[in-house]
Amino acid sequence: MGARIRDERKRQGLTLLMLARLSNVSLSTLSKAERGLIGLSYEKFLAVSRALKMDLSDLFKTPRDQNESGMDILVGRASRTVTYHAHRYEYGMLASEWINKKMTPMHGRVLAGKPRDASDFSQHEGEEFIFVIEGQLTMQFQDGRRHVLQARDSIYFKSNLGHLYLCEHGESVEILVVCVNNH
Q: With 50 as the cut, is the pLDDT of residue 65 above it?
């Protein structure tokens, strides 16, 4: 994923410092992400994709996907989903081939473990829907609210509320996430 960000940044003639300023993501974080040393959160991916004037899912497309257009139906195949690994999360963009989509669907797995610090809270524009497929998910909000969700439970919230996905029981939680951005 880092190589894709670097390739697009260079294609647009941007330096790492320019992208850091445009995205409001620190220079060291971008540098480490481009080299594959760290994973970016959804919030930072969104900021970088906007700074690069790209749809978020464009960063997850395979070369074959880049040529797809004019669809009115899209069937997604698990074998073609690009999975991204970040601290305590694994997620793959679904329907990444769809151009100019209004929502960002993702299949995710929340791994057991504690957040590093308060900066792990995600906060971005739009709304978010989460459906728990398997396991128990704890949604922790920055204002102190917590909601424990079991398999087949769901939650819908405004994404500008600082939020954190937690797996406090078991090895992981499998979820479906749909984000809708205001852009």
A: no
What is the side-by-side order of every strand in the sheet holding 127-134? 83-86, 89-93, 103-111, 172-180, 127-134, 154-158
Structure tokens at 48: 């970088």
Domain of 95: which CATH number? 2.60.120.10
Model confidence over 123-161: pLDDT tens digits?
888 999 999 999 999 999 999 999 999 999 999 999 999
Q: Which two tokens stand for residue 182?
A: 């205001």
* Average model confidence (pLDDT) across the chain: 85
Structural domain harbouring 20: 2-54
16 within a domain of the structure (yes/no): yes
Q: List the one residue out of 106, 74, 73 whose CA is nearest residue 89.
A: 106
45 alpha carbon, distance to own chain's centre: 6
The pLDDT of 49-77, averaged and rounded, is: 71
Residue 64, pLDDT > 60, answer no
Residue 173 backbone dihedrals phi, psi, to 5 degrees: -130, 130
Query: Rounded CA gap, 91 and 39, in Å?
Result: 11
Question: What is the C-alpha to C-alpha distance for residues 108 and 37, in angstroms, rounded to an integer?
Answer: 21
CA distance 50 to 63: 20
Amino acid present at 26:
S
If asked whether residues 8 and 89 sit together in one domain, one would say no
Q: Is residue 9 part of a domain?
A: yes
Tokens 């852009």 correspond to what residue? 183
